[in-house]
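TICKET: design request
STATUS: open
ATTACHED STRUCTURE:
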């Protein structure tokens, strides 16, 4: 029997493990912090939760309050919507029918706005066909499922070709919405740069009775892809 090896093994087991020492050091640091903070562990936990919410609000999801009736009847004044800020962060882009929140500074006004995407880069959006419906790339879109009752798609005729990297947006309550139609003669032609989109409104989270998931209307799924031409990018009122 190798008797000399036994004390060596006992010496190894009795020495503190590096990871255990590090854990104790971290715990000691947290203890010093909680001793310094009024309220101790409760205050530290609240700070940690607040930091988590700030990161979540900045990069993942953010609640917005609906300030006007421009998106009725789906979104009412005072509703809170949860905006998915990751929806367009990894290569995906806004699609026709999405409800988006964007920074309107320099285009609509110095504020955030919420509207529905009707045209994306390369699209030709026309109002209106013989039945009073909006056409996108030559296909009429039936918007009755989400338009405010009694509203027409637009009382203002227009023909626009949406430049790449921008969006043509409209409110669902067309007679009470200041949107791309009202800014066709302004800088940018009423188009919203995709880079200024904050995120996609995915849920109504308040009031509880109005809680619902916002989905893309099927009417836009039948719109064909844009056909590019040399004249694409022009906007006309």
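STATUS: resolved
RESOLUTION: sequence designed for all positions
ATTACHED SEQUENCE:
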């Amino acid at each position: 029997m190798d008797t000399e090896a036994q004390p060596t093994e006992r010496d190894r087991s009795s020495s503190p493990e590096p990871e255990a020492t590090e854990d104790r050091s971290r715990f000691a640091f947290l203890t010093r912090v909680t001793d310094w903070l009024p309220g101790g562990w409760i205050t530290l936990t609240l700070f940690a939760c607040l930091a988590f919410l700030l990161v979540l609000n900045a990069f993942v999801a953010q609640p917005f309050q609906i300030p006007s009736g421009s998106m009725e009847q789906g979104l009412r004044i005072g509703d809170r919507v949860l905006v998915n800020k990751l929806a367009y962060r990894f290569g995906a882009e806004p699609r026709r029918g999405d409800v988006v929140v964007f920074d309107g500074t320099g285009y609509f006004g110095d504020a955030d706005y919420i509207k529905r995407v009707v045209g994306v880069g390369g699209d030709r959006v026309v109002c209106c066909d013989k039945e009073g419906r909006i056409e996108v790339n030559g296909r009429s879109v039936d918007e009755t499922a989400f338009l405010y009752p009694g509203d027409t798609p637009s009382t203002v005729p227009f023909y626009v070709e949406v430049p790449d990297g921008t969006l043509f947006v409209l409110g669902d309550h067309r007679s009470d919405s200041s949107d791309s139609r009202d800014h066709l003669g302004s800088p940018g032609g009423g188009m919203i740069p995709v880079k200024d989109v904050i995120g996609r409104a995915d849920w109504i989270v308040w009031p509880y009775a109005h809680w619902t998931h916002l989905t893309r209307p099927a009417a836009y799924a039948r719109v064909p892809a844009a056909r590019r031409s040399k004249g694409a990018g022009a906007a006309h009122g």
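CLOSING REMARK: The helical segments are 5-14, 18-36, 41-59. Residues 1-15, 18-23, 51-59, 230-237 have pLDDT under 50 and may be disordered.
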